[in-house]
């Protein structure tokens, strides 16, 4: 069976946010597009996103980088939801309908994980992530795949160091990575792009197994 996917990389538009922790979802899509030699990003005003599309394996995927800011990320999907299903209407290929429960992937930063840690979740709550909350509201289900990338610190003993209090949380997610974290960031984004490719070509179970061996 050939699968076709919609993939959303969460983040904020604008040069001032490019290298912030909250933009890891967008970073992964940039690496994915470059790795697979896809055409660059074009603006789609109807989808309120920068979009890229192409073939991967035997399937096709439409990638979205919402231009609405994080809290309104779901607005990029409202034009693709019809009758409880998502549909892809790209420029180069005929309309392809995909099931939201199986073929929507949302990539985002996660304060509940340390930098370097990646988890794949399916049919889970937002965990307080407002971008994910917006997507859930738009597609009216939690039944989609999430590729979660850690952004928090970690103690020498391996215990996560999450920021405490709303002000510190905002400072963290909108802050840039430290110089000492850049190498780990690059490795993580590259690994996440590999996981995304596996999700699309071989399924989320295969991608989960791959992450477990790294």
Describe this structure in words.
It contains 6 helices and 11 strands. It is an alpha/beta fold and 214 residues long. Helix 5 (182-202) packs antiparallel against helix 6 (204-212). It has one domain: Rossmann fold (3-Layer(aba) Sandwich). 37% of the residues are buried. The strands form 2 sheets. Strands 1, 2, 3, 4, 8, 9, 10 and 11 form an 8-stranded mixed sheet that branches. It has a 3-stranded antiparallel sheet with strand order 5-6-7. A hairpin with a 4-residue loop joins strand 2 (42-44) and strand 3. Residues 89-96 have low confidence and may be disordered. Helices cover 30% and strands 29% of the residues.
Do you know the CATH architecture? 3-Layer(aba) Sandwich
Number of helices: 6
CATH H-tier superfamily:
Peptidyl-tRNA hydrolase
Rg: 16 Å
Give the SSE order as H and E letters: EHEEEEEEHEEHEEHHH
How many strands, which pairing sense, and closed or not: the largest β-sheet? Answer: 8 strands, mixed
The count of DSSP E runs of length 2 or more, i.e. the number of strands, is: 11
| Highest-level CATH class | Alpha Beta
How many independent structural domains?
1
* Gross geometry: globular
Summarize the amount of helix as a percent range: 25-40%
Strand content: 25-35%
Outline the low-pLDDT stretches. Answer: 89-96
Instruction: Report, as a whole number of angstroms, the end-to-end distance.
Output: 28 Å
CATH-assigned fold name: Rossmann fold
Global structural class: alpha/beta
Q: Roughly what is the average pLDDT, rounded to an integer?
A: 87
